[in-house]
Amino acid sequence: MLDxxxxxxxxxxxxxxxxxxxxxxxxRKLSGGAIQENWALDIHLESGHQRSETLPVVVRADAxxxxxxxxxxxxxxxLLQTAFKVGVTVPEPLWLGDVSVLGWQFFIMRRVQGxxxxxxxxxxxxxxxxxxxxxxxxxxxxxxxxQVLPPCDALHFLPLPRQTPVKDNVADWRAYLDQHHTPFPxxxxxxRWLEINEPKPLAIVLTHRDFRTGNYMVDASGLTAVLDWExxxxxxxxxxxxxxxxxxWRFGQNGAGKEAGGLGSRDALLAGxxxxxxxxxxxxxxxxxxxxxxxxxxxxxxxxxxxHVSGREPSLELAxxxxxxxxxELEILHMTGVINAARA
Amino acid sequence: xxxxxxxxxxxxxxxxxxxxKVVPLLPQDQRYNALMVANAMAIALRQWEAGDTWQQEELVxxxxxxxxxxxxxEVQNGQQDLQNALITANRALAHKIRQGDFDAPSQSVAELxxxxxxxxVRESAPKVLQTPR
Lengths: 344, 133
What we know:
heterodimer, A: about 350 residues, alpha+beta, Phosphorylase Kinase, domain 1, Aminoglycoside 3'-phosphotransferase, Chain: A, domain 2, 3 domains, five-stranded antiparallel β-sheet, about 40% helix, B: mainly alpha
């Protein structure tokens, strides 16, 4: 809650850091975020000659509850800094707070204008500029991020894969299912398919792992910011490409040429990727990672639903997230050839 | 006797009232919550309408495929017993899948997997079944 008391505490803290804050106003809660709360705020800074300039920021703070898989604010701040330094289009991270200032963890980043809502980004003509060009740009952004390799001091908190990212997740998901009160044979099918179809791994890189339509902002000219870094990890670079293209993240745009985020073609995404990385990823390689994306999203949805089902955190949104699992299972059966086999 | 209208009828009229008379009056940022309420009511209605019918069929299909009587002697008819039997049968299926018994699924296995998915989707997100691929 960014009330007057919190704003006074923020002002004193920033002045203590040497930031010439004159005043702050315009605090308002931004929508979205089951894991975080985001507050817009205008900071007025002294800029000499009795003039001030306004710095529009977002204060990103812990929400009352969070997913255990996701990173806390100090880690997310480090991830944003790392991405910013390699030229990924992210909101500039400005200051990392601590619990003593406001009573909860937070950081402050520059506020960027744009629309994130996936259903608008895919449908509205002109939003995001030319859609195929936007997809190309997103491929290039991913490639910039994937230039970050382990070891990386700033990201010391990110564990390295124990085996490969796929094998690790297969083991972790099975362990989760084994202790769950309900069996999920169709998810088991998807996990088994991933296990026996795992491609030769590429060298691991820093991946966003939630880079999809809905998690970046655009304006009329194109991309303005890549958001939501709390699932980032060392992984196979194709995980980000597959996640972006997975049918479950196309916001209903399932026509030909819209496979990448419901916006454009896979080819445009891979061409953008190649333009920065020089790495040629065959389009057929994405199939495995799109199946992987559906299995991973289904497992996350199951875990989120369980927060409600267990009674730990009653929430209609979490309850409905559990009901996404069946449609993901059906899609996994389509993608892995089961449904063709059933109808043969 | 219980008073009419009962649960299914009440849920149906409550949901249509919510969508037609309440949602249009709500500010944009509150509509999401109301639409989630409507969606939850629709899922509950579909589950109520389906009853146990497909789950009983599921148990039979699993027993046929797995070749075992997972019900056991002690299990009688009843909602809780059906759920327990389904858990046992689905765990057995999951185990076989995990150990690779169905890596090259026969047509009957593939049909069962599709059937299971379709039953679940029909309750949770039936629009998906109408979406062309």
